[in-house]
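Internal ticket - ligand job 552, NAP:
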Amino acid sequence: MANMDQHPQKPKGNGAVEHYDAVVIGAGFGGLYALHYLREMGLSVRVYDGAAGVGGTWWWNRYPGARVDFPGGPFYCYTFSEELVQEWDWAETQPDQPAVLAYLDYVADRFNLRRDIQLETWVHDACYDEDRQRWMIETSAGARVSTQFLICAVGTLSAAYKPDIPGIDDFAGESYHSGRWPHKPVSFAGKRVGVIGTGSSGVQAIPEIASEAAHLTVFQRTPQYTIPARNRPIDPEVIRQARENWAAIRAKMNASPSGSLFEVSDRSALDDLPEQRQKLFEELWQKGGLHLLFGSYADIVTDKDANRTLANFLEGKIRQIVRDPKIAEKLMPNYYVGTKRQILDNGYYETFNRENVALVDLREDPILKITPAGVCTERGEHPLDMLVLATGFDAISGALLRLNPKGRGGISLKEKWSKRFDTYLGLAIADFPNLFLIHGPGSPSVLFNMPLGAELESAWIGDCVRYLREHGLGAIEPTSDAEKSWDQEVAEIANRTLFPLTDSWYTGANIPGKPRQFCVHLAGPRYFQRISEIAASDYKGFVLEKKIPATD
Ligand code: NAP
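stdout (structure tokens):
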């Protein structure tokens, strides 16, 4: 698989080594807060990010239509600073990419973070030096850096995936990946545009592109269920209440399965009569957002029959909205609804009623190759001026594997994770002492409120570092046994749901050859309770090493 972020290494500097207590890789939600937390503890910290600005995923994913797909505004942001909550005004229920990026820029200034962040700098190499209990890293800027702690806040959806379609680099027109969208304005006006991919990125971008382009061809391999986001201005009363009751709201989000304020139902979909279900589904569909999935019935993603009730409802909506029954059938999904990342859209199905939009069903008419002039499928060529790849990411483990740190005895992460993405708590890896992950495999990551999860994990890591320092310890590393039992715990929880039954990026099925493993801990609040208990038990499951006196 092509790495879309290959950057030449600059010549090495004068050989001098920079020293820090902690290096953080990534300046998104996770990395920014880790920097703040560790710096407040008195550590010297350096953050590196390959992007030219802070923001992580919100810096890269600036394709048209990019918006938060979680309850947004005052609920998809940092919670650690009450002042910040009072100061920042969110305008919409599903903020768009510029709004989230503006917020993160504000945070970087507000907490004076930039002085410790080095942008446009990729970490090329990271090796653990057992004798010094430190990581040695090399950056694309040619620097050599020594740090006791290495915190990988590299993002779960940051290693953009460009599929190996024959001729993909031969296309002569404009070509963009949704996750590497250019910073200059992109005009679709008067152009014949093709979009490959109908996940969240494709579904968000397609209505926007269709409204401007001369013609849009959507190349769909797997149809998806999507729910209207119904983005709207935030009710000022919601903001007022969020500000007035911040501590209580934060506690409520921490205790909820998804880290949000959704009222979770405890009823089975099968307890209601069909007309009662239909009424509830319709009400929640009209409300928009994730209410339909989280707020309807408790067993939508755990019981196949309950799942079918919602699937029937959504399939009915597709037939109702899409005027051409043949196109409606092509858009009909075939998986357990909710077990792929639930997409929120802004007029996606309606887009297929437009005269200037065509749908190519790749299951019956596969892509053969891409030529300089367009996309060739079995049934012919689709001439294009612009190609948009909304083909997703090597999710959760991909960015860590591209970093490929070398741990104890020189073992590389690629070797360690050649078959399974084992971690302990999603936070640490056996044989990789003093390396911490934010949103790593085995943490709640993408199925919990991500900014909130990043805060809680960063704080856990910071508190662990404090513990080591207070106890004269130089290194911490989980045991392999602890990893194995964590792996089992993650799998046991997942196996009570329908998630592992679906091919999705949650299971690694979107990347050819990737080991299949469901890598998300599905019990958010219990997860955060467990990691606190482990910290309180003097880090059960970890090996703690005495500090080796410094030799440099
Ligand atoms: P994705 O969900 O993985 O979707 C990728 C799409 O590309 C799929 O439709 C896939 O088809 C298609 N594809 C991949 N390789 C292909 C090939 N060789 N030929 C044809 N089609 C191919 O990726 P994404 O849409 O970028 O979304 C990833 C995740 O990012 C989301 O699930 C979400 O968590 C996050 N995201 C969030 C937001 C937000 O609103 N906050 C917005 C965008 C993305 P198959 O399904 O058949 O593989």
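Auto-summary: The pocket of NAP is lined by residues 66-69, 157, 163, 165, 178, 196-202, 204, 221-222, 341, 362, 367, 390-393, 446, 505, 510 (CB under 6 Å). The CA atoms of residues 62 and 183 lie 8 Å apart.
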